[in-house]
Amino acid sequence: MDKYIFRTIRQEETEQAILIEKICFPPNEACTEDMMRSRIVKVSDLFLVAEDTDMGKIAGFLTGLSTNETSFRDEFFWDADLYDPDGRNLMVLGLNVLPEYRGQGLARELVQRYLRREGERGRQVVLLTCLPDKIKMYEKMGFHDQGLSKSIWGGERWHEMSYPITNNG
Q1: SS3 of 79, please?
Q2: Phi, psi angles (nearest 5°) of residue 47
């Protein structure tokens, strides 16, 4: 992971993030351009970017929204105003790794660094939704399958996964 710098997203990387989202998710599941712009403006501190220092571009990123709510709902995807900077829980909205960087452990590294950083910020639980084919991947990262989510984002049936953060800084 020496070729990457892990950091918060920069406003000038908005178009790059929009493009990466379009590459990583099918149209019915991807964040819209307006939603991504809103997230980057309002919640940039909850992005974690992996910058490929050799190429000078974003290889992948993870983004979320902090809240005191305890279960995932679709509104988190499109309403950045639900952001509570002091929220004890974190809803992961997207894990994006460009195809040419997959299979190298970058997604796992992004998740591990994100969990550590957010634990240091005092977060207690991280929640995400995933399709059934990603459950095993997230379980290997320490997440627990909570069963079917209430989320129907993109017309899909998602599983809600949780990760209790035990090291709160």
Answers
A1: coil
A2: -95, 145
Q: Is 128 helix (H, G, I), strand (E, B) or coil?
A: strand
The rounded Cα 67 to chain-centroid distance in angstroms is 14
The pair of structure tokens assigned to 47 is 């992005």
> 103 in the Ramachandran plot: left (φ > 0), alpha (ψ -120 to 50) or beta?
left
Phi-psi region of 142 (alpha: psi -120 to 50; beta: other; left: phi over 0): left
Beta-sheet pairing, 57-67 with 4-7: unpaired
Q: 126 to each of 118, 129, 140, how far by Cα in Å?
A: 9, 11, 15
Dihedral in degrees, nearest 10, Cα atoms 110, 115, 120, 122: 140
Chain position carrying tokens 């997207």: 94
pLDDT tens profile 56-105: 999 999 999 999 999 999 999 989 999 999 999 999 999 999 999 999 99
Phi then psi dihedrals of residue 6, to 5 deg: -105, 125
